[in-house]
Structures are given as C-alpha cells and as structure tokens.
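Why this split exists: single-chain examples teach little about how molecules sit against one another. For that reason, every record in the complexes split bundles all components of an assembly together and asks for one structure covering all of them. Below is a record exactly as it appears in the raw files.
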Amino acid sequence: MSFVPGQPVTAVVQRIEIQKLRQGENLILGFSIGGGIDQDPGQNPFSEDKSDKGIYVTRITPGGPAEVAGLRIGDKIMQVNGWDMTMVTHDQARKKLTKKREDVVRLLITRKSLEEAVKHSKGSHPRQ
Amino acid sequence: SRDSSSRGDKSVTIQTPGEPLLDAESTRGDDRDDNWGETTTVVTGTSEHSISNEDLTRVTKDLEESTPLECKRFIGPALGGCLSFFALITPLAFLILPQVLWRDALKPCGTPCEGLYVSLAFKLLVLLISSWALFLRPPRATLPRFFVFRCLLMVLVFLFVASYWLFYGVRVLEPKEEDYRGIVEYAASLVDALLFIQYLALVLLEVRHLQPAFCLKVVRSTDGASKFYNVGHLSIQRAAVWVLDRYYNDFSVYNPAVVNLPKSILSKKMTGFKVYSLDENTTNNSTGQSRAMIAAAARRRDNSHNEYYYEEAEMERRIRKRKARLVVAVEEAFTHIKRLHEDEAAASPKHPREVMDPREAAQAIFAPMARAMQKYLRTTRQQAFHSMESILTHLQFCITHNMTPKAFLERYLTPGPTMQYQQQSGRGRQWTLVSEEPVTSGLRQGLVFSLRRLDFSLVVTVTPLPFLRLGEEFIDPKSHKFVMRLQSETSV
C-alpha cells in the first residue's frame, strides 16, 4: 500500500457499494474517516507506512450501511464514485462522500488482507 | 445674534441713506422683508470692565480659599478630648479624694490594694497610649451631619462616667466611706469599663468598615474618568470622605481646557434653516418645531464625524511632534551640566570652573528648553498648571537628586493625579455632598450620590459585592495522564 512518489500506485482493491441511509434530514453512511494530505500521517493507527496520507476508515457504526456493505475498520479508501482519494485533503474527502444528491457511493478500498489473499491465491494457483 | 457672513446663508445689510441699495455681499434683497430681524448683527457698546467665565471661576476659587480658618473643624475633637480627659482623671480623683478629705478614718489596706494600684496604673497608661494612638489625630474632614458612631460613643462615655460619679457621691462622699479597699476596687472597675468602651470605639470606628462589602463606581461628570473602589459598611458621608481621599490620588487632574468636541464641529449642524408654521390656527408649538428641525438636520448628509476624526488625528500628530522636540531639547540641556565631586575640585586647580548651586544650574540650563516646553504645554493645554517658576523649581529638584531628563519630563508628559497640583493651603477644599437619602444612612444597593465642586462633580453609584460560593474539588496528583490525540476524524 505504500507508494513511491512519481510512480503509479498499484493496489488490490475491493469494490464496495454503500446505500446511504436517511436519518432525519441527513444521509449517513455509518463510518468515520481519518487522514488526508493536510493531516499528520504519523498518528494513523491503521496505515502500514507512516507516511501514507491516504483516507482510512477509523470507525464503523455497528449495523450501519457501511458495515452491511462490507466495509471494515482500517480500510484505505482509494476512490469514491470515481473521485480519487489518495491525494485529497480531509475536508475534500468528506465532501465527496457526503454529496446530498447521491444516494449511493461506490468505493474502491484496499486492505492488507486483500494483498495477502491474492498472494496466497497466486502462490497456490500459479497462473499462466 | 448670528454672524451675517455664515456661508451660504442669507445675509442682510441695514440700509443707511446715501449708500447703494444692495451691498455687494447681500444676496436676494427681496427676501429682506421675511427675515430681516433674524440675521442682523448689532454692535452694542462693549463695556470696558468685562469678566470672562474663567476669571469668574478663578475669583470664586480664590474667595473660598481665603476664608478664615473655620473653628467648626475643631469642635468635635475638642469635645472628645475634654471628655476623655475627664474620663481619665476620674479614677485618680476617686482614689485621691478620700485620702485628702478623711484620711484618718480610712481603714488601712495592705497587699491587695497595692496590687490594685499597680494594675490601675498600667490600665490607665494603656488607655492613655491607645487614646493618643487612635483618636488624637487631626481631623481630615468635616462632615455635614453628625458622625453617628462617634456621637454615640461620646454620649456613652459621658453617661457612664456621670453615673459612676453619681454613685460615688452618694455612696462614698456622703457617708464618708471607710473601706478604702472597696473604693480602690470601685475605681478599678471604672477603668476596666473604660477599656471596654475603648474596645467598642475601636471596633465601631476603625474595624467595622475594613471588610469590603460594596463596590463604588466613581465617575467624573466632565470627562468620564471613572474608577471602581471596594468599601465596607459606611454611612454615606463617611463613604464620601473615603472616595475623596482616593480621588486626589487616582484621578488625573481636571483640565477645563480639554472639552469633548470643539464647538466648531458641533454647531455646524444647527445652522441652516428655520421652521415656519403657515397654519394660523395652530398654537405656538415650539417642541414640534425643534423636533422638525432636528429631524431635518439628521436627514441632511452629515460630515461632522469626518471632521472630528481628522481633527483628532491632526492634534495627535501635533502633540507628538512637540513632544519629540521637547524631549530632544531637554536631553541636550541636561548634557550641559554635571555634578562636581569633591576630589575633582581639588584635582584640577589649573582649570577653575564656575561652581554653581542647584538653583543657578537650573537657571543656566533652563533657557534652551524653555521655548520647547512652553509650546508643548500650550499644545496639550496644560499651561495653566505649570508656571515658569514651578518648572524651574522642579528642574532644580531633579538636578539635586540626579534625575535623568526622562524623570524630569515625567511630570509634564502625562497629566498626573490631582494631588500633584495642590498648593498646601490650610483652608481645605470645599465639596458638596448631594444625595437623595439622608447622609447618615448606610450604603445599600442602588444608592447614588454625587460630590459637587464648582465646575465638575463626581457621581458615585453603589453596588453590593457578589456573594461568593466557593466549592472544593480535589485532584489526585497521580491522575494527570495524557495521550496523543488522534487525527481529526469525521463521521459520514
């Protein structure tokens, strides 16, 4: 999940589609995000590389739409509805997630266990 | 009568035969019928003996300061002094009179009497010293009404001593009592009681008002200078004296030359137009007229705030410039002299310098700075407070005490407290206490009284100090623990 500046980022991602839940006036997703290029990356408990300034999922409301859709705590969000999340400020990320006109957000997330699963499957089933 | 050359207004000339009908200055001569009485300037014969307002106030001030020393000031203390003298002499009289009058018939009394004598002597000494320390002070103020506590105490002492004398006369002098020990004990009990009365006086007069209970806000009516003070339980007149004591130290001196807004800015609003009522039936509604005028004046585009702002800025700049010149002049002047030490005088007999005393030294260096000083004082409108003589004296004082130019200028750069400008005349200052409540009543919430002098007054408002409810919270010193803060987390 670490990146080399100047090189394209490659990662194994999972596609997650979350339906927003209407709660009173607001549409909520049921999780909390942390991180961003304007935040301190050293304090991120979920990132492997402590210079990673990406957006991470820090908390999931149990039973909320995010948990139902399969989001897990510690996931790094790479894209939201096509918008890139690897080089955004915290506020920009929040805005992309909380657009009032959208009922559905399609996230591309990555986590360490995905990489390992792919490696594992690669190792056990070598492809041609 | 208004000046007929105010800008843009109609002006009128009074015609005298032989002159052209219309003067070059007057506009629209046909309007003369309307308002010819309003804007004419009439020149009356000025009298040669005219007194300006400032002269008047100065004359009244001089009058009040030259009144003869009031004897009323000393009646109270004199009365108190007589009473306390009488009270102190009484026990001695009680002891001495039987010895003098019927010495032979008295039963001798041994050691107990001697003990009583010694204790009596010491108690009288203590009474004497504490009376001197507490009560024998020159009075600081005369109050408009009786000082209630003091009168109460004096009456108490008088009644007390009188009743003791009464009993003495009836029980001892008449039957010529022989038991001397009883008489000595009687005198000792009087002295004890006097000590307790003095304790009561101490508490009532000196101690009770020490614990703060009220907050007084004192505002000067002319320029709004205000201060807050905490006082204890006092009567209005005593609180007034208390406030005046603090006034002389804390408030900057009242300068009648510094007014709020120069008239030239304010009065521009009022010229302009008159209101005419064309309806014949209406009675003379003057309030309606003035209200209409004020409303119309307010609707006009008003630039007086602009002018005020610029005039303030200009004045400040001018003051700062003059101050800079003054500081430089004084610094330079002070470099011209230096203190002569004794060994220097002996060491250089070849170059005898002219040795001056402080007065001459001050006069020598005063000349270069005099002009700058005068201009500065005039700009800050302080010239009434400092005469050339006083400046010279102050300069001499500063030179004698090795002060720097900055210390010398401290007196002139900021207007000091009123105390600094007092001349030591024994007459005292006349203040009038204006109050809606009787002045011997105590302070309470919402009371307002004012202290008036000739040209300004101090308005005092009383508010009680808030009651404080102090709670307790114990913190275990081991409970101070810290963690690193997580990044900002937003829930979506």
